[in-house]
Write a structure and sequence with these properties.
single chain; 309 residues; alpha+beta; TATA-Binding Protein; Endonuclease III, domain 1; Endonuclease Iii, domain 2; 7-stranded antiparallel sheet; two-stranded antiparallel sheet; disordered N terminus; disordered C terminus; DNA-binding
Length: 309
DNA sequence: TTGCAGGGGTCAA
DNA sequence: TTGACCCCTGCA
């Protein structure tokens, strides 16, 4: 049953049409949006593929199912109000990815990577959740990171209901600050448990202001994040890119290191050299380039090896 | 069945 | 620069 049409938004020369249906929001003409690419390019850990190919997840405290049919995207469980206040920004829908891709595709390697992961979008995720998730990601693999995050939410998140389904929010810094190391460890966090508790105490106590860090330039924001225990260059760059709109951040993990050495630098290179190279070559699109490259190299060579992040 | 090697960011020595 | 950290997977 279709209801109410229609909220029109300009986006890169085409109109994104937003239609409210009985059980969600339908986005027509949503270009450059492929749920599999968005949710499986390593930027998020609470989205799960369903048997019908849709993805269901909890983000920004809400349960949502995302489904793609031909050229439309269905956001099942969302209202127009939630779309405007939350999902539009979360899915970065006001950005013209077509333009970004054509600029990146001037480079031969990225041309292939962009063709492969054509529907990637960089999500604007909650900063606290992104910080904790990527502290957990250190020395870890994606399936285990997902299990650990779910376990933290199930044990210490808030239990909520939406359209008959139960789900758990991500526990806030105040909640985690009150937990013991054993309680956090028991969720599968391992040696990262003290880092997570330390971050929770400093954030909930006001010593660290995550929103304030987001307002800094990339260099200072990165430095501030790295003052947290368990946050090195890679974790800091992921937080910058996936929750703070710092699109010049270029997270370098083993896969990105491999792809940069193999295709560009042609020899072993340290982190500093790789980031310098990326910054010169991709500039303020470095973060986008990183996502296309990561998805491309991992899907081609890595998936059966590990699933690491 | 068991046990061991390997993977992966950050910290501390 | 290097080993330890926690846990899972793959393979003898």
């Amino acid at each position: 049953m279709w209801e109410l049409t229609s909220h029109l938004h300009m986006k890169g020369g085409t109109f994104l049409e937003i239609i409210e249906t009985g059980d969600g929001i339908l986005l027509k003409n949503a270009e450059d949006f492929e749920p599999m690419h968005v949710f499986e390019c390593g930027q998020c850990f609470r989205w799960h593929r369903q048997d019908d190919g849709s993805y269901r997840g909890v983000a920004m405290g809400r349960l949502l199912t995302v489904r793609k049919d031909s050229s439309s995207i269905m956001l099942q469980g969302a209202t127009v109000q939630e779309f405007n206040s939350t999902w539009r920004k979360y899915f970065d829908l006001d950005r013209d990815y077509g333009q970004i891709k054509s600029r990146l595709a001037e480079d031969e390697v990225l041309k292939r990577a962009v063709e492969f992961g054509y529907g990637i979008r960089i999500l604007n995720q909650d900063i606290w959740e992104t910080l904790v998730s990527f502290i957990i990601s250190a020395n870890n693999r994606i399936p285990r990171i997902m299990r650990t995050v779910e376990s933290l939410c199930a044990c210490y998140g808030e239990r909520r209901k939406a359209s008959g389904a139960e789900y758990y929010s991500f526990p806030g810094p105040g909640t985690i600050a009150s937990l013991s190391e054993d309680e956090v460890r028991s969720c599968g966090c391992g040696f990262r448990a003290p880092y997570i508790i330390d971050a929770a105490r400093r954030v909930s106590g006001g010593e660290v202001d995550l929103d304030g860090i987001r307002e800094m330039d990339t260099v200072h924001a990165r430095k501030s994040l790295m003052e947290l225990r368990g946050v090195g260059p890679k974790v800091a760059d992921c937080v910058l890119l996936f929750s703070m709109h710092k699109y010049d951040a270029f997270p370098v993990d083993v896969w990105v290191k491999r792809v940069m050495e193999h295709f560009y630098i042609k020899e072993d290179a340290g982190l500093g050299r790789i980031q310098e190279y990326a910054s010169e070559k991709f500039g303020n699109l470095a973060g986008f380039a990183q996502q296309y490259l990561f998805y491309y190299i991992r899907e081609l060579f890595g998936r059966e090896l590990s699933g690491s992040r």
